[in-house]
Design goal:
The protein is an all-alpha fold. The protein has a domain at 91-218: Tetratricopeptide repeat domain (Serine Threonine Protein Phosphatase 5, Tetratricopeptide repeat), CATH 1.25.40.10. It is built from 8 helices and no strands. Helix 4 (109-130) packs antiparallel against helix 5, helix 5 runs antiparallel to helix 6 and helix 6 runs antiparallel to helix 7 (187-200). The radius of gyration is 40 Å and the shape is rod-shaped.
Length: 219
C-alpha cells in the first residue's frame, strides 16, 4: 500500500477527541480533590522506647565528660576520699601511725610507708606478747581483721597519693579479701577505695560498680 494511502487510513481510524462537556444550569460544579491530612509522626514502638531509655540511662550515669565526648571542668565529678580512723592502739604504735600521716601529707611517701609498716610490726609484737606466743617464733601472727584492714587501706592510700595505682589497687584488693562479720559496715571501705583508684585510671564503669557495692553494704 502506498504511504499516502496508509496515512489517510490512519487518520480515518483515529478517534476524534470528544469536546469537554459544558456544565448545565442546574448541574453542580465538581468538588475539588481533597488530599488526606498528615497523620503526624509514627508512634514509637516498644523497641524504640527501650533504645531511648538506654540512651537516657547512659547519659545520666556516664555523662559526656566521663566518656570523653565533652570536656567541662565545671561538671567533672569529684571523688571524695573516705576517711577511716585508726583503731585504738598502744602509744608507740599510735605515734608511728600519726607520723605516717604527716609524712604522707608532706609528700614523703617512702617514710610514710616505713612508719606504717613499723607500726604494724610493733603492734603484732605487742599482741604476740599479750597472748604468750613468744615460744613459737616461726608462727605467723595476724592482727584483728579491723586492724589489718586499716593498715592495708592506709598503705593503698599512700601508694595512690604518689601515683602508684597498681600497688594501691593490690593493697585495696587485700583489704577487700579480709573477712569481717557479714553486717560489718567497714566492708564498704575497700570498695570505696577501689572506686577511687579505678576512676583515676580512667575506668569509670568499674569505679561506679565499686561505689554502688559500697552503698549496698551500708544500706
Amino acid at each position: 500500500m502506498p504511504k499516502d494511502k496508509a496515512d489517510k487510513a490512519d487518520k480515518k481510524g483515529a478517534k476524534k477527541k470528544a469536546p469537554p462537556k459544558k456544565a448545565g444550569k442546574d448541574e453542580k460544579p465538581p468538588k475539588p480533590i481533597k488530599w488526606a491530612a498528615d497523620k503526624g509522626p509514627t508512634p514509637a514502638t516498644t523497641l524504640d522506647l527501650i533504645r531511648s531509655a538506654v540512651i537516657d540511662i547512659n547519659e545520666s550515669v556516664f555523662p559526656k565528660n566521663i566518656r570523653q565526648d565533652h570536656q567541662n571542668s565545671g561538671i567533672m565529678p569529684t571523688i571524695i576520699k573516705e576517711v577511716f580512723m585508726p583503731p585504738n592502739a598502744p602509744s608507740e604504735v599510735a605515734t608511728l601511725i600519726e607520723s605516717s600521716l604527716v609524712y604522707q601529707n608532706s609528700a614523703n611517701y617512702e617514710m610514710a610507708v616505713k612508719s606504717l609498716e613499723m607500726a604494724r610490726s610493733i603492734w603484732k609484737e605487742y599482741e604476740r606478747k599479750a597472748q604468750n606466743k613468744l615460744s613459737d617464733a616461726a608462727a605467723v601472727f595476724m592482727l584483728r581483721p579491723e586492724q589489718e584492714l586499716y593498715f592495708e587501706l592506709s598503705l593503698g592510700s599512700i601508694y595512690e597519693s604518689c601515683g602508684k595505682d597498681d600497688i594501691a589497687m593490690s593493697c585495696y584488693m587485700k583489704a577487700r579479701a579480709i573477712k569481717l562479720p557479714a553486717d560489718h559496715p567497714d566492708q564498704a571501705f575497700a570498695y570505696c577505695c577501689l572506686g577511687s583508684v579505678l576512676f583515676h585510671i580512667d575506668e569509670p564503669a568499674w569505679s561506679l560498680r565499686c561505689y554502688l557495692k559500697a552503698r549496698e553494704i551500708r544500706e
